[in-house]
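Thread: 3-hydroxyisobutyryl-CoA hydrolase, structure

OP (GT): Posting the sequence first so everyone is looking at the same thing. Length is 391 residues per the record. Can we get the structure tokens written out before standup tomorrow? I want them in the notebook alongside the other entries.
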Amino acid sequence: MNPPVLFEEKAASNGMRVGIATLNAPQTLNGLSLEMVDLLAERLDVWARDAGLAIVVLQGAGDKAFSAGGDLHGLYRSMQQHRGQGAWANRLARDFFEREYRLDYRIHTYPKPLLCWGHGIVMGGGVGLMMGASHRVVSETSRIAMPEISIGLFPDVGGSWLLNRMPGRTGLFLALTGAHLNTSDAFYAGVADFRLDSADWPRFMQTLLDTPWAGQAGGPGNGAPPPRSINDGLLRRALLAHEPPAPLPPGPLRQHAFQINSLCSGNDLGAIHQAIAALEEHADPWLARAAATMLAGSPGSARLAFTLQQRTRLCSLADVFRTEYIAALACAAHGDFAEGIRALLIDKDKQPKWNPATLDDASEAWVQRFFEPPWPEGEPHPLADLGPPEN
């Protein structure tokens, strides 16, 4: 059986090494399992302490996807087993979301340059891995989305933090519609830093081995390690040297940004939902598909995503993860999460029976249950040590 994550260290010309981690489940579009999370977290910690390792590259096996999301089949089985037992009873959900969010936060705060090759499909949990990387690289095949409204979840893995930092109200639009970003819009939305043609990736990887990385190739050595900025700059230079010369035309998100900002303005989710729904017959297929996806999606997920963005707008990244953890466990216990997975991946009838069935029923009062800590009173938040809390 092939290992779910492949790890490799390659020596550069001056003896420093490049660490390469490859998600190795192409048959499931590199869907992220708990085992993969744990393997990545363990190796990233080792590499962080290794004075002879200059940079880390994170990629996905195959040519279709970096990662299309998390292990929804495993989470579905756990939700079925613990139905009606409350949010804290589902040990797999507790472990998966805690350790996944810890890994994502670790990547955001990693002490060395970390390049993520976001080729092909990047969705859900894949976005969580990519967004914290110091050098986020896309290709002509990249398709990035947070489509959780279609499975009764919400844009988690720090999605509330990420979407709040996109231009205008585009982050809210993407949360409500699950709309895909192409390569050009990935830059506009602030989720990509560099681009390479996929055919040029092998040549770029060889360039990394020809680069004179700063560090201590023989071990800790004497004196302080060189500043990280040296290797950040060397990696940036290598990426820019391989950047395709042709400029990218504006993507649909940027083309329609003025209209999207107008539709999603204000704090009345009902009015915003209605305005987006009116796009269902729009001549632009990207807008029409966005509206159709929202209308077919979970009303509860729409309310939860909207409320999360409102509540976390001024929060630190660590506090966003803490808030999302509580909401994710609530979704696993009594939200539409299990029903969305059933309709999309298990029975594949694509006829989910959402509860609540309408946005009016998914009210501001209804959504408060997704912010109530489920663990026994007096116990600390499982992610309490993730970072400094808000004052």
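GT: Both are above now. Quick notes for whoever picks this up: The longest helix spans residues 91-108. The mean pLDDT is 95.
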